[in-house]
Amino acid sequence: MPSNYHNFRNSVPWLLIFLEAAFIILFYFFSDGGASSPRISYPGFQLVNRLLIFGFGFFLVFLKRYSFSSTGFNLLIIVLGVQCSILIEALADLLLQRREKNALESIAEATVSMTAVVISSGAVLGKTNPMQLIVMTIVEIIVFHASRWINIMFLKLSPEMSMMHVHLFGAYFGLAVSSRFSEPSPMSEKNASTPKSDLLSLLGTLFLWVFWPSFNSVLLPRSFAAICNTYFALAVSAVTAFALSGLMAKDGKFRMTHVHSAALAGGVTIGYAADKINHPWIAMILGLLASVISILGSGFVQSCLKPPLKIHDASGVHFTFGLPALLGALARVVFLVIEGWTHLSSLGYTIMFTIGAVCLTISIALITGFITGLILNFRLLKPTPVSKYFEDQFYWEFPHLAVGF
């Protein structure tokens, strides 16, 4: 390889071996699989696992020279993060003397938790090397579990609802990390897509769209209602994405970026209220509003935030996950008001705790994300130079290009 390419042979493999050895030792002491029967079925876990591996793996393959890294590093951080997440939960169960979960249940919850890290990695897509991604994964999954624990213990959120903050936490943690990385050159040809990469990315969107009802329902007791409500929200969200995309373009043509993000916005939003909705038309309205917010966010909010804050959101996680999640949190507050109107004495506390949990989640995500971004730029982690952003060849072997090196 050329001399200006970093050699990660003496860092990444040894870090991975060390982490895996530590995980094996910790699993020996803190996790035995549990004896209770799982609340989560294997098909349910399987669908969520496919969503994370296939869905997000292809969803982020839109950069023309970063497809190997988008899918490969996505697999790496997921399998590392799931192990770390299981250990954190096992340690929390031991310290708090909670019911020990079955192994399948633990893996499913850890897989859902890893959505936060995958979303955050999208904000810095193409700018981070494997060392930085591994460190970010370990730090973020620990902080996310700490945030969940605070929401459950002190703000009285249910474990299922605290997990739905995964989109909110992942989006704003990723934006905060991204603020510590340099912006790519506006003229950079590598920070662009091709018809082939857009098609693969759309394939990821289709995977996520199909499996999202399983994601929203796998941890909820009223899973049937959550599945139906999620489907209606996703359906209207996708239709609205096409409609607005055609209206916003002067030539009336659809834009792949709009469909890529807004088609999923309804699924993100409905996750906060999937167990509170009894009529499909309500879920459909939320899907419509989520799609509108997502597309308007991609057109206006990002352009307003980028110059003053110097945040380059590589894959648009703010308007794909962050803004729809905020809408979902607001919708949940509205449903709680409607549901508890006859119990005004306790309604104020419920609303206060719900809003407080959202604000706390965003605050923790922004603060710890900013600190993590500073850590990732330490020279020890070999930050990627701006000239090598969005380039697979910096990390992967290409045999047909290696001749003569």
Care to give the gist of this entry?
With 405 residues, the protein is mainly alpha-helical. The chain has one domain (41-392): Ammonium transporter AmtB like domains (Ammonium transporter fold).
List keywords for this structure.
RhesusRHD, 15 helices, Ammonium transporter fold, mainly alpha, NH4_transpt_AmtB-like_dom
Describe the model.
The protein has one domain: Ammonium transporter AmtB like domains (Ammonium transporter fold). Helix 11 (256-270) packs parallel to helix 13. It is mostly helical and 405 residues long. It has 15 helices and no strands. Keywords: Membrane, Transmembrane, Transmembrane helix. This is RHD protein.
Low-confidence stretches: none
How many individual β-strands? 0
Overall SS class: mainly alpha
Task: Specify the CATH class.
Answer: Mainly Alpha
Shape: globular
Strand residue percentage: under 5%
Oligomerization: single chain
What's the helix-strand series? HHHHHHHHHHHHHHH
Instruction: Write down the CATH topology.
Output: Ammonium transporter fold
CATH superfamily: Ammonium transporter AmtB like domains
In total, how many domains does the architecture comprise?
Answer: 1
| Cα separation of the termini | 6 Å
Helicity range of the residues? 55-70%
**Radius of gyration, Cα only, in angstroms?**
21 Å
Largest sheet: none
Q: Enumerate how many helices there are, as a single number.
A: 15
In round numbers, the mean pLDDT is 88
